[in-house]
Amino acid sequence: MKTETATTVRPARNLRGSVSLPGDKSISHRYAMLAGIAEGASRLENYSTGADCASTLGCMRSLGVLWERKDNVIEVQGHGLALTAPARPLDCGNSGSTMRMLSGIVAGQNFTSEMVGDEWLSRRPMERVIKPLTAMGAQIESREGKPPLRIMGAGLKALDYKMPVASAQVKTCLLFAGLLAEGETCVEEPMRTRDHGEVALHAFGAQLQRHRNQVRIRGGQKLRGMEARIPGDLSGAAFFLCAAALFPGSQLTIPHLLMSPTRARLLDVLMQMGLHISVTQVEEVHGEMVGSLQVEGARLKGTTIAGADSAALIDEIPVLAAIAPYTEHGIEVRDAKELRVKESDRIAAIATNLRLMGAQVEEHEDGLTIRGGQTLRGAELDSFGDHRIAMAFAVAALRARGETLIRGAEAAAISYPAFFETLEALVEG
User: Fold this and answer.
1) Distance CA 98, CA 114 (A)
2) pLDDT (mean) for 113-142
3) Residues with active-site annotation
4) Which one in 9, 97, 112, 398 has a CA-CA gap of 20 to 30 Å to 284?
5) DSSP 115-135
6) Percent of the chain with pLDDT over 90
């Protein structure tokens, strides 16, 4: 049984310093999976320290992949495309990313896998991967579309699939399945999502074709192991960027950060809102753009996040919404219904916590309207077992009047175990 912890966050006067972030979660997951089905060894430096990415490594070990951690490096011995039947259920912990993406790999094996998760993951819908994988030939049993999943692997056949909802994880799942299928699989998304799956496949030696919102992959291609330093997590950086944005005199440096065009929309939005950000030392590493940020705080205006921006900023919306009352004109979020089915119902969680801090918030089915120019007070808040909610409200608490207590703060360890210590080292009281 997990022990719930509460963390107290005190108001700050300023934020200053440098923060080196753990490896990007999205890339870490994909690299661990692909290193496992590659031929030869892979060396992954700055692999994510989060519990979610540890769940992926644990599942790969259960599938016969040998790996070891040496300081800040994961060394993986590739097993090739054919993995080993697991002796026990694949424990995905709290990680929907692990379950969704890895299901594409185990669906193409000649054995049965059971995929399980914690109580939070067990509530999350998996139909978006079940339906297309079943169409490719896998047999999947679930609890009304939710975990646990029992996947009877098969010789998959290629699929032409139009995704009804934009999701980088579902796209990656189907590309991984396509790698193990007979023929050429085509995945078409309704709007462009993050391309870490395609970039990672290419880095491990796979050939893909991209045309507008379509990606094609030919089955049976062999992957080769590689060495890589995983860039810092931009979603993790979002919390420190928004913390810096709360204080006009703040100064922050973030080196070796992922600058993927499909992820860097956050920087554009924050700069449009008034935060001063300069990007230096930009380079391409294994197909991903990496750079360093110099950040200086300023008065924030407000913004509207809708349409394609909602998909591009889906992980960053919680912290942007948490600081919205401190902006001049507030923030409106629309077209973000997917937030309802994340680790928590994030729309409801954000609204609940902001109201507890005294903010006026209008909740919509697909988003929120939060007016600016508000003063928040310290309060007793709940993480709802969600790492992004815990971290977002730690940031909001820095400008509140009085102390804030965040219950379930241990949820931050899902993506960033050292978050609270790192934040405390940067703030000036």
Assistant:
1) 13
2) 96
3) 315
4) 97
5) EE--TTGGGS--HHHHHHHHH
6) 91
Tokens at 382, concatenated: 């709940």
What is the third-level CATH fold of 6-23+231-428?
UDP-n-acetylglucosamine1-carboxyvinyl-transferase; Chain (3.65.10)
Identify the CA nearest to 169 among candidates 198, 145, 147: 198
CATH number of 25-228: 3.65.10.10
Strand stretches in 20-145, DSSP E = 41-45, 66-70, 73-77, 90-91, 112-116, 139-143
* pLDDT tens per residue, range 159-210: 999 999 889 999 999 999 999 999 999 999 998 888 999 999 999 999 999 9
The neighbouring-strand residues paired with 45 are 73, 229
Per-domain boundaries in the chain: 6-23+231-428, 25-228
Using the CB atoms, write b or e for 107-127: b if 16+ within 10 Å: bbbeeebbbbbbebbeebebe
The verdict on whether omega for the bond into residue 148 sits within 30 degrees of 0, i.e. cis, is yes
Q: Where are the beta strands (DSSP E) in 128-195?
A: 139-143, 146-152, 160-162, 184-188
pLDDT digits 0-9 by tens, 10-65: 999 999 999 999 999 999 999 999 999 999 999 999 999 999 999 999 999 999 99
Both tokens of 418, joined, read 């050292």
With bands split at pLDDT 50, 70 and 90, how would you rate the model's confidence at 3? low
Report in angstroms the alpha-carbon separations of 329 from 47, 351, 370, 393.
38, 18, 9, 20
- Report the mean per-residue pLDDT for the chain: 95
Taking phi first (over 0 means left), then psi (-120 to 50 degrees means alpha), and beta for anything else, what does residue 390 get? alpha
Number of H helices, E strands in the chain: 13, 24
Q: What distance in Å separates the CA atoms of residue 224 and residue 34, rounded to the nearest whole number?
A: 9
In a 13 Å sphere around the CA of 74, the CA atoms on its Cβ side amount to 29
